[in-house]
Amino acid sequence: MTGTRSAAMTSPRTRRIKGTSQVPAMIFLYILSFLVVIPFVWMISLAFTPNHEAFGSVSLIPANPTLENFGTAWIDANLGRAMFNSLLVAVAVVACNCVFSVLAGYAFALMPFPGSFGIFLGILATTAIPVSVTLIPLFLMARGIPLAGGNDILGQGGSGLLDTLVGVMLPYLILPMNIFLARQYFSTSPPELAEAARIDGASEWRIFRSVYLPLAKPLVAVVAIFSFVGVWDDFLWPLVVTNTESSQTVQLALARFLASGNIQYGPLMAGAVIATIPVVILFLFNQRAFVSGLADGSVKG
Amino acid sequence: MSTSTPSPMGEATTSPVGGVPSPPASGRRPRRWSRIQIVGLLFVLPAGLYILIFQMIPVVYGFVLSFTEYNPIRRGGPEFTGLDNYAELVGDPEFGKALLMTGRYVLQVLPATVVIALVLALLVNRPFRGVGLFRSALYLPHIVSLTVVSMVWLWMYSPSGLFNDILTRFDFSPQTWLLDADTALNAVSGMRIWKALGSNMVLLLAGLQSIPRDLYEAARVDGAGRWKTFRYVTLPGLRPMLVYVVVMDIIFLAQGFAEVYVLTKGGPLGSTTTVNFLIYTEAFQYNQFGSASAMAFVLFAFIVGFSVLSVRSLVGRQK
């Protein structure tokens, strides 16, 4: 952060904002950015601070850095199992969204049929439904899935998909927002490609699979990231649907670790770091997709 | 794994369905669906059915439940009680307080986060070396889960955490932050303002960049100062995005849950019990699915009302 300071000051082009006020603006930006980032710096610092030192005045750079907290968190919070669960759920959710949400968005954009726009609007409207409205019905539906978890054919008698990984992934498998993003993306793809392929006798599935999908890699990246982060970071649904360690996600494992007795900030922060690493790695390699996904989903519709 | 499913399904089912109507349709019947339209429907079908079953039906199901009394432990099934749940909510001081707290929470976080995010967006909307680094750093709080950032702030607010450490270093007395009913909601709000900055900034930045350059050129030629350019070019150009940002923030903030769960568990003395937190405890600790559903629909109505109101006030000024 400090290395860019001099370079930023001598920025060659200034547009919109006139050159005179650059210095105060930059100082202001440095201060704000510092304030935004500082909690994460502390999170990492505490993760390496021996737990018995984590109370009282802590220094930003640990005097006796240790990896002990990571081991404690990994074992006491059962993070290994939780990471595995979260990853499995996330992979299934990403795969499902990349296929079905993208396919539906493609059809909405390039293969419209009578009533398709109405259906699209209906799907779009579901993005505004608060989680708490569908939470209880989804819980009952997950419990009542026929022939799962000891249920009979009518969905009675057992626990259904409660406390299973399939139950955890259930509400995220096809996210309406992704269908919206896909439709927006394919609306700007040239329809002539499909016409040409149809003349050549290609099936509709092939046209999608071999003509348009290869052109839509940025979209697939956005959909994958949106789905991954959405399911990885979510808390309320996993909290409701799981009740043992066998199916809990990593966020839940951390929350239960926090609630399990006296707060141990060292291991807790180490666990927080572990839980955050996959998302941060994804972000670092796909920054553009992260940001454009957010912006694309906004006012273009 | 699931990648292979649509291919057989798509092709196997389309050919018979698509093949049947086309030969007799040669006599030009406009009503009949073309093969492409039928395949289009089939492409939408899996997603459409899923959304219907797991998004739309739950809303209806929840609405029905809100008129019943239902304890999921006793497997007797819901009992219809008419408007009882809603009537009880009207006189329920706990629910009233939760609504009030949720409203306060939204009103405390929303303006602050939007204004700071706008300032940040303006600051990083200029070309200088390292601007990408700043944008990434400022976006960071958005991608880290609410659960995790709440835990970090839990430490910062703790009696010997960062905030009290700073205060005592400057000879101020340490504060109780989350442990005091008067300050707990403010403390949660402070965290959420910070958490919401990243996404708002990115959205507003996209909005800023969609404003045509020539408008700024024209303003400059006309001799408009910086404030006037901002007031008459930037703000109007930003309005659609601003509306979107405000509505999205209202929807998300009004559903605050994970931060409350981690930071305060709704306390002290219910001072941070948001409606969503109350719904959770009502449903999953007290097993009152009926009245919890009614609460959810009252919250839904408030969110819609708030959103419409804010869109009106933001768009209305355009004329």
Automatic annotation (TrEMBL), chain A:
<keyword id="KW-0813">Transport</keyword>
<dbReference type="InterPro" id="IPR000515">
    <property type="entry name" value="MetI-like"/>
</dbReference>
<feature type="transmembrane region" description="Helical">
    <location>
        <begin position="160"/>
        <end position="181"/>
    </location>
</feature>
<keyword id="KW-0762">Sugar transport</keyword>
<dbReference type="InterPro" id="IPR035906">
    <property type="entry name" value="MetI-like_sf"/>
</dbReference>
<protein>
    <submittedName>
        <fullName>Multiple sugar transport system permease protein</fullName>
    </submittedName>
</protein>
<feature type="transmembrane region" description="Helical">
    <location>
        <begin position="87"/>
        <end position="110"/>
    </location>
</feature>
<feature type="transmembrane region" description="Helical">
    <location>
        <begin position="211"/>
        <end position="232"/>
    </location>
</feature>
<keyword id="KW-0472">Membrane</keyword>
<keyword id="KW-1133">Transmembrane helix</keyword>
<dbReference type="GO" id="GO:0005886">
    <property type="term" value="C:plasma membrane"/>
</dbReference>
<feature type="transmembrane region" description="Helical">
    <location>
        <begin position="117"/>
        <end position="140"/>
    </location>
</feature>
<keyword id="KW-0812">Transmembrane</keyword>
<feature type="transmembrane region" description="Helical">
    <location>
        <begin position="265"/>
        <end position="285"/>
    </location>
</feature>
<dbReference type="GO" id="GO:0055085">
    <property type="term" value="P:transmembrane transport"/>
</dbReference>
<comment type="similarity">
    <text>Belongs to the binding-protein-dependent transport system permease family.</text>
</comment>
<keyword id="KW-1003">Cell membrane</keyword>
<feature type="domain" description="ABC transmembrane type-1">
    <location>
        <begin position="83"/>
        <end position="286"/>
    </location>
</feature>
<dbReference type="Pfam" id="PF00528">
    <property type="entry name" value="BPD_transp_1"/>
</dbReference>
<feature type="transmembrane region" description="Helical">
    <location>
        <begin position="23"/>
        <end position="48"/>
    </location>
</feature>
From TrEMBL, chain B:
<keyword id="KW-0813">Transport</keyword>
<feature type="domain" description="ABC transmembrane type-1">
    <location>
        <begin position="99"/>
        <end position="310"/>
    </location>
</feature>
<dbReference type="Pfam" id="PF00528">
    <property type="entry name" value="BPD_transp_1"/>
</dbReference>
<keyword id="KW-1003">Cell membrane</keyword>
<feature type="transmembrane region" description="Helical">
    <location>
        <begin position="294"/>
        <end position="315"/>
    </location>
</feature>
<keyword id="KW-0762">Sugar transport</keyword>
<protein>
    <submittedName>
        <fullName>Multiple sugar transport system permease protein</fullName>
    </submittedName>
</protein>
<dbReference type="GO" id="GO:0005886">
    <property type="term" value="C:plasma membrane"/>
</dbReference>
<dbReference type="GO" id="GO:0055085">
    <property type="term" value="P:transmembrane transport"/>
</dbReference>
<feature type="transmembrane region" description="Helical">
    <location>
        <begin position="241"/>
        <end position="263"/>
    </location>
</feature>
<keyword id="KW-0472">Membrane</keyword>
<feature type="transmembrane region" description="Helical">
    <location>
        <begin position="38"/>
        <end position="64"/>
    </location>
</feature>
<keyword id="KW-1133">Transmembrane helix</keyword>
<dbReference type="InterPro" id="IPR000515">
    <property type="entry name" value="MetI-like"/>
</dbReference>
<feature type="region of interest" description="Disordered">
    <location>
        <begin position="1"/>
        <end position="30"/>
    </location>
</feature>
<dbReference type="InterPro" id="IPR035906">
    <property type="entry name" value="MetI-like_sf"/>
</dbReference>
<feature type="transmembrane region" description="Helical">
    <location>
        <begin position="105"/>
        <end position="125"/>
    </location>
</feature>
<feature type="transmembrane region" description="Helical">
    <location>
        <begin position="137"/>
        <end position="157"/>
    </location>
</feature>
<dbReference type="InterPro" id="IPR051393">
    <property type="entry name" value="ABC_transporter_permease"/>
</dbReference>
<keyword id="KW-0812">Transmembrane</keyword>
<comment type="similarity">
    <text>Belongs to the binding-protein-dependent transport system permease family.</text>
</comment>
